[in-house]
Amino acid sequence: MSTSKQMAISGIAGGIAMGGYLISSHLLDSQIGYQASNVIGMLIAYSIDFFSQQYIFLGKLGNHHHYIIRFLIHISLEIVIAQLLLKLVMSYLKKHKPHFYKHGLKGIWISVIRYIIQLIIFFTITFPMRKYFVFV
User: How many alpha carbons fall within 13 Å on the CB side of residue 87?
Assistant: First the structure.
């Protein structure tokens, strides 16, 4: 399969997992706060993502320990980067846009910020790591 086709299919599957991330994080935001809900949402998404990406890149599902270990390294890096980016954006908004931070950052806006962060991470980290590190 060509790299561009893999990227498209991987992106679609990742988008479905991302939906799980955004929905679960959004539902948990008011219960446990945006930082904890962000981590839980990412863990849900990455669980879905592992199996779908394994099928895309390997053409099969299986219990391959070396893929699981590489995937865990990959998602650990992604989680740390996504958390740092979210924290940086939130700190920036709190400091430079306090009215928006207090009144406008409810509901959908935090999900939009999360989506933009994940989109940036997909093209710069996720796809290259899946193709050249995790599933090789």
Answer: 9
pLDDT in tens, the chain (136 residues): 788 888 899 889 988 888 888 888 888 888 888 778 888 887 888 888 888 888 888 887 777 788 889 988 998 898 899 889 988 988 888 888 777 766 666 667 777 888 899 889 989 998 899 889 998 8
Would you give the distance in Å from CA 18 to the centre of its chain?
Answer: 6
C-beta of residue 27 within 8 angstroms of C-beta of residue 73: no
Q: For position 1, what pLDDT does the model report?
A: 73
Pick from 101, 111, 117: which is nearest to 29 by CA? 111
Cβ atoms of 82 and 117 closer than 8 Å: yes
Scored b (16 or more CB within 10 A) or e, 61-89 reads eeeeeebeebbeebbeebeebbeebbeee
Tokens of 105: 């950052």
- According to DSSP, residue 123 is labeled I
Task: Report the alpha-carbon distance of residue 11 to residue 15 in Å, rounded.
Answer: 6
